[in-house]
């Protein structure tokens, strides 16, 4: 029987402590507004089997966790970790947790900027939408024009974005503005199953389904002019946002290693508080193999988004004559990863394994990992809202470095399950309503469109307002969807 009391201590208007009780090794910390905090408590006290507050507490009970188990403003239940969850672990005492990354390894967003403005876009919206729909593969099981062998897949899992650049999908200049410059070291394809590779033979250069999208957006509002200038943004400018991840390969890696880490948890006598919260000591053979396979998933996602960026550029050239080199990368960053990073804890610089599940790296000013052009301002956070509302660009800050291991929100966060959304919304109705609002939709699945209805998500403006007002990740710009391509 669950005897947790679910008490929260209010630190300030946007920060709440989950006191250390029971098996918790550290307290939890929620960076949310009061309505969200109370909602999390009510849900847990109401006996929901699957709730985010229990997951924050469970993560706080894992060996080697440092400082706190974090829930961000877009928090909602996930597999093992909450989505919007962050936890860092000591290298010698901590664990690698498959549920702290999830199945869509390195799902993330690439943002491209164009020289076009809103008025120029309006003249060609339907033509652009039609060409994107015809030439960017999207949807469950979608296959692209890049058909690879096992050996070629191995190269993609090691080389990341460079793999796609070498095949003509983009430019070397892109890499400067990709997290990890589009490639993370330590990826060994030997630790990825043949089944995972087979599922990926024709999926590099494909968008996928669910909450993945390609959007043509415009900059609706600038909040921080200096940061916007550093990022090369101006009001009315036309942008391209690509949200997808490692596709079937990442999902299979997640499935494969849930079984392996369950065995490891039992072998090393580690707690299993939820079936997806299995783990292995970081320095164990099992932990090292999972981290290496997960890095392959990270690189696969980099290769995929790079290829999709190339397809988007080709499409804009065909439809409106825009030169591919005039479509430049603003930034690309993932939000389902585990990475070794240096962070200050108790006045000491330590290398920690930081798990971000539905959370974006939000490094503040001065970090050498950032592109030189952005180093004075902090990293851009690319926050997806919904196809009927808005997306945002935020930035990392000194506070995010101190409070959340340099992490920030990744989206609005779901307010209802996909199953419930499909029972409440009708895809054709969603399309009609968005068309009336001036948003052009192209979808390969009306049930999928219903799952992603704006009403199935939290209010992104409210979510962003809380992290902006708190100073955790200040807002730089608000983006309005104009054309939406969904699987």
Could you characterize what this model shows?
By secondary structure, the protein is α+β, with helices and mostly antiparallel strands. 33% of the residues lie in helices and 24% in strands. It is built from 15 helices and 19 strands. The strands form 4 sheets. Strands 7, 8, 9, 11, 15, 16, 18 and 19 form an 8-stranded mixed β-sheet that branches. A 7-stranded mixed β-sheet has the order 1-2-3-4-5-13-12, with helices on both faces. Strands 6-10 form a two-stranded antiparallel ribbon. The mean pLDDT is 95.
Radius of gyration: 21 Å
Structural class: alpha+beta
Mean pLDDT: 95
Total strand segments? 19
Largest sheet: number of strands, sense, barrel closure: 8 strands, mixed
Strand content: 15-25%
If helices are DSSP runs of H or I spanning 4 or more residues, what is the number of helices?
Answer: 15
Helix amount, in percent? 25-40%
Low-pLDDT residue spans: none
Q: In short, what is this structure?
A:
With 487 residues, the protein is of the alpha+beta class. 33% of the residues lie in helices and 24% in strands. It contains 15 helices and 19 strands.
Keywords:
487 residues, alpha+beta, 8-stranded mixed beta sheet, 7-stranded mixed beta sheet, 15 helices, 19 strands, 33% helix, globular
Question: What is the fold's blueprint, element by element?
Answer:
Elements: E1 9-12, E2 15-18, E3 28-30, H1 34-45, H2 52-59, E4 69-76, E5 83-90, E6 95-97, E7 108-117, H3 118-122, H4 125-135, H5 150-159, H6 161-165, H7 194-198, E8 213-222, H8 225-231, E9 237-244, H9 247-267, E10 279-281, H10 285-320, E11 328-334, E12 336-345, E13 348-357, E14 359-361, E15 380-383, E16 391-395, H11 398-404, E17 407-409, H12 418-424, H13 427-436, E18 440-443, H14 446-451, H15 460-470, E19 475-486
Parallel strand pairs: 3-4, 18-19
Antiparallel strand pairs: 1-2, 2-3, 4-5, 5-13, 6-10, 7-9, 7-11, 8-9, 8-19, 12-13, 14-17, 15-16, 16-19
Helix pairs in contact: 4-10, 5-10, 9-10
């Amino acid at each position: 029987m669950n005897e947790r009391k679910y008490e929260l201590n209010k630190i300030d208007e946007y920060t709440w402590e989950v006191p250390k009780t029971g098996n918790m090794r550290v307290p939890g910390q929620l960076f949310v507004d009061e309505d969200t905090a109370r909602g999390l408590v009510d849900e847990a006290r109401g006996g929901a089997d699957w709730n985010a507050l229990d997951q924050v507490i469970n993560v706080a009970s894992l060996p080697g966790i440092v400082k706190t188990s974090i829930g961000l403003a877009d928090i909602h239940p996930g597999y093992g970790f909450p989505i919007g969850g962050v936890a860092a672990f000591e290298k010698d005492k901590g664990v690698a947790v498959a549920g702290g990354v999830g199945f869509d390894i390195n799902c993330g967003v690439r943002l491209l900027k164009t020289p076009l403005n809103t008025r120029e876009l309006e003249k060609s919206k339907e033509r652009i939408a039609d060409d994107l729909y015809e030439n960017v593969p999207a949807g469950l099981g979608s296959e692209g024009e890049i058909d690879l062998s096992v050996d070629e897949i191995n190269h993609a899992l090691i080389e990341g974005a460079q793999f796609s650049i070498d095949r003509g999908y983009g430019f070397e200049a892109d890499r400067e503005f990709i997290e990890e410059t589009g490639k993370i070291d330590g990826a060994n394809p030997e630790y990825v199953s043949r089944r995972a590779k087979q599922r990926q033979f024709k999926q590099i250069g494909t968008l996928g389904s669910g909450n993945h999208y390609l959007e043509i957006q415009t900059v609706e509002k600038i909040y921080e002019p200096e940061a916007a200038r550093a990022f090369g943004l101006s009001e009315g400018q036309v942008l391209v946002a690509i949200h997808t991840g490692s596709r079937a390969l990442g999902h299979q890696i997640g499935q494969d290693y849930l079984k392996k880490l369950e065995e490891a948890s039992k072998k090393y006598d580690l707690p299993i508080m939820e079936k997806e919260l299995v783990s292995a000591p970081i320095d164990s053979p099992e932990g090292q193999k999972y981290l290496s396979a997960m890095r392959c998933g990270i690189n696969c996602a980099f290769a995929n988004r790079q290829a999709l960026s190339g397809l988007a550029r080709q499409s804009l050239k065909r439809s409106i004559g825009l030169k591919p080199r005039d479509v430049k990368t603003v930034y690309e960053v993932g939000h389902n990863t585990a990475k070794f990073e240096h962070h200050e804890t108790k006045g000491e610089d330590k290398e920690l394994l930081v798990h971000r599940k539905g959370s974006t790296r939000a490094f503040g000013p001065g970090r050498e990992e950032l592109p030189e052009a952005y180093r004075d301002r902090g990293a851009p956070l690319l926050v997806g809202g919904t196809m009927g509302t808005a997306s945002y660009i935020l930035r990392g800050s000194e506070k995010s470095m101190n409070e959340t291991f340099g992490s920030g929100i990744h989206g609005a966060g779901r307010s209802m399950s996909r199953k419930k959304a499909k029972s409440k919304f009708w895809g054709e109705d969603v399309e009609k309503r968005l068309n009336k609002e001036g948003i052009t939709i192209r979808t390969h699945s009306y049930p999928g469109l219903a799952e992603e209805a704006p009403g199935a998500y939290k209010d992104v403006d409210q979510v962003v307002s809380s992290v902006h007002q708190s100073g955790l990740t200040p807002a730089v710009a608000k983006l309005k969807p104009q054309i939406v391509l969904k699987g």
